[in-house]
């Protein structure tokens, strides 16, 4: 026992001597072997004290999540009419589109960099990002908003590229019934721009695009001389006339 106490005292003295002496050449050569004798490491706190290893918080969050899941499951299984308002509230909120653009914009403003799980911004030439919407392509209207109540059919030159009218996040890229190959971009103000009847899609789901980035290529008209595509703008879950915010020929 006396030998062990002496050994511990020698190690403490050695550690103090090491701390008081300058480190040559900026190197760290001392190996800390105090832990086997019950002495805490002097170069940091233990793993159990690190905030990333606080298991009680982690298990508490899991418990709360499980309880919430069970409450919602019972609520939807129970036939009581008194629970109808609560069921309607949950259904309405779960069916809403997640606001990727708004959250990404807030996160980047707060922390100075984009959210890690979102793709990096497209490395393409962009135009100035100003207030309002830009033209998606040089085009003229061949079918008005009043005709279909949702968007415009626009005529362009053959092989034209369709560009994003404002910056945002791609929340849909694929086939939509009635308008074929379609890209839907969600913007920071919670509005959406739809680009349909495309020949090719040049963006991926959840990709961040800037105003003026290419999103796709127009389809070829029936006579093969022109191009065409569909454009719609959605605000507050309702389509608005793009002509009111974008100038066309």
Structural class assignment:
alpha+beta
SSE string, helices as H and strands as E: HHHHEHEEEEEEEEE
According to DSSP, the number of beta strands is 10
Tally of DSSP helical segments: 5
How big is the Rg?
30 Å
Largest sheet geometry: 10 strands, antiparallel
Distance between the termini: 95 Å
Mean residue pLDDT: 76
Give a structural overview.
By secondary structure, this protein is an alpha+beta fold. Strands 1, 2, 3, 4, 5, 6, 7, 8, 9 and 10 form a 10-stranded antiparallel β-sheet that branches. The longest helix has 23 residues. The N and C termini lie far apart (95 Å).
Task: Give a brief description.
The protein is an alpha+beta fold. The protein has helices at residues 2-20, 55-77, 84-95, 100-111, 145-148, and strands spanning 140-143, 151-157, 161-163, 168-176, 180-186, 192-201, 208-209, 214-220, 226-235, 238-240.
Task: Give the SSE map.
Elements: H1 2-20, H2 55-77, H3 84-95, H4 100-111, E1 140-143, H5 145-148, E2 151-157, E3 161-163, E4 168-176, E5 180-186, E6 192-201, E7 208-209, E8 214-220, E9 226-235, E10 238-240
Antiparallel strand pairs: 1-2, 2-9, 3-8, 4-5, 4-7, 5-6, 6-8, 6-9, 8-9, 9-10
